[in-house]
Structures are given as C-alpha cells and as structure tokens.
Amino acid sequence: MLLSFVIPCYHSAETLPGVVAEIVRTVRADGRYDYEIILVNDNPPDDTWRVIEKLCRADGHIRGMTMTRNFGQAAALMAAYRASKGDIVVGLDDDGQNPPSETFKLVDALQDGVDVAFGDYPDVKYASLFRMLGSRLNDRMACWLLNKPKKLYLSSFVALRRCVVDEMIRYTGPYPYVDGLVLRATTGIVNVPVAHKQREVGSSGYSLRKLFLLWLNGFTAFSVAPLRALTFGGGLFTLAGLVFTVCIIVRKLLYGDAIDAGWSSLMCVLLIIGGMLLASLGLMGEYIGRIYISLNQAPQYVVRLRAGEENAPRE
To answer: How many CA atoms within 13 Å lie on the side-chain side of 8?
Structure first.
C-alpha cells in the first residue's frame, strides 16, 4: 500500500529537510508501506523552492510544485491532495511541530468505519497568540456552521482514506475550506492523541489579516447559517422597535408633556439599526461576490513549476 504525505510549504527552507528526513526514517522503520512525499511551495520570497528541488533530486519518492503566487494554505493542500496517489494520505505542517514519528498513530486508527483521524494535542505549543486565537475561532465556527462535534479537534496533522480525498478534490471552487470538505465527506472521524513540538525556527506565517481571511472563508464557505442569523437578528430588532414604540405611546398618553421627546434614545436606536443593516448588506455582498468570482471561474491555484514528476506513481 502507498502512503502519501502532503505538506504545504511557506518560509520553510530551514525546517523542511528535517521534516522530510524524519518522514523517511519513520516509514522505513515501520516497513508496511511504500511512500511518496508531495511538497507544495506557496510562493514565499525565500529559498524554499530551491530546497524542494534539491530534496526531489535526492529522493525519488519526493515530488514538488510551486505556485505562481501565494494562494494560501488551503489551496496548496488541495493541489497536494490532487497530486497524491496513496491509499492513505497524511497531511502535516512544514515547521516540524507535527512530529512525523507520530504518523502511524493516525494511520492505525483508520479501522472499523473510521475514515479520518485528526491529531489531538494534549500539550499544544502554539507558535504565536494569533495562531492560537485563529485555531480556537476556527473550532467554534466549525461547530456552529458545519455541525462539528464539540469534542472533535480539527488539526493540520491528519490521516485520510483515499475515498475521502477523492471526494474532497471534486471541489474546484476558488475558496477551498479543507476542514469543511472533510466534515461534509464523512462522519467517520476520530481524534488521536499525538505529541506537539515547540517551533524551533521562524514564526507563524499567519498575520492578523490572514487569520481574518481564514475566518471569513470558513464563515461563508459551506453554510447559509450566517444569513439565517441575520434574518433572526433583524426580526428581534423589529420586535424590539415595536415594543419600544408601544412603550413611548403609552407613557406619552399617561404622563403627557412630562415625558421628554427622547431624541437621544431615538438616535441610539437608529445608529444600532443602521449598523445592523450595513453589516447585513456587507455579509450578503460577500456571498454575492464569491458567487460572481466563482462564475468567472477564478482558479483555485496555478502551478508554475514541478519537480520530481518523473518519479510519480502511475495509475
């Protein structure tokens, strides 16, 4: 059986050789699987692609590709999944925080109706506060929008059966949300406790802007729940406005001129309602904009160069 390792790469020239070497040692020590390693360079301004080319020349099990621009981690993962041929596909990060030595804990969990095994970190070591906040926000959002079980932890260290990967790569839209694709493909998902290393080199590539875009993509990717929430919120504001109006009329009838006209409270209400309306229009505009871009067939990613393709497994 073939085991595919897919790794999106960004600013990982220093860490990638160590990660690849540990993958090779782990698979060869286990001895049950043949393997391939697919490295997707998301076009950072450093020497990552040169390192990938060198790794491909040194080991016929390794293939690489580089993008024409930075399309994001999700698009890089989708490119790697499409290039993979393995019966089981393992996704992990390029920074060494997901120890490849823990791989077979995930692989061996794919039994008896289990299609996906996510690594769970009892002692997680976040590279930055932004990464921690982004991970937690993504988890809460998946529970609300995608009906993710609350106790299920979605991590970047994951093993998937081929059938799940084949279903995921059917999605060709320009806004891939990998966790959402997994959750809609199967309910046979488990968590497996694995170790988590401290990041030794560099820092997380997730800026505040990238975290916001990640959150927004997950927020609008596979659910209309936000629009329904706006409808519910609009109904509450309408009801509150009617109640407030009735209260003002009753008080005016009871107390006459002793009651102030209430311009301040009126302005506050108008500002709240106006803000609600603008937020609603903005969210609806986001949905419509994504529909427009999808209809224009914007690419999910564009590959500039490939390395090691002559060693790729054949169909």
So the answer is: 22
Mean pLDDT across the chain? 82
Residue 280 shares a structural domain with residue 191: no
Average pLDDT over residues 235-246: 73
By three-state DSSP, how is residue 208 classified?
helix
214 and 240 in a single domain? The answer is no
Give the distance from CA 17 to its chain's centroid.
25
pLDDT, one tens digit per residue, over 85-129 is: 999 999 999 988 889 999 999 999 998 889 999 999 887 655 556
Residue 213's pLDDT is what? 62
- Cβ atoms of residues 39 and 74 within 8 Å: no
- What is residue 122's DSSP assignment? T
Quick one: 180 and 281 in the same domain?
no
**Residue 96 near residue 200 (C-beta atoms within 8 A):** yes
Total residue count of the chain as it appears in this document: 315
Supply the angle between the helices 129-146 and 225-255 in degrees, to the nearest 10.
80
Confidence (pTM): 0.74
307 and 288, same domain (yes or no):
no
Tell me which residue range forms the domain holding 161.
2-222+298-311
Q: How many domains does the chain have?
A: 2
Residues 212 and 183 in one domain: yes
Is residue 244 domain-shared with residue 203, that is, in the same domain? Answer: no
User: What is the rounded end-to-end Cα distance, in angstroms, of the chain?
Assistant: 13
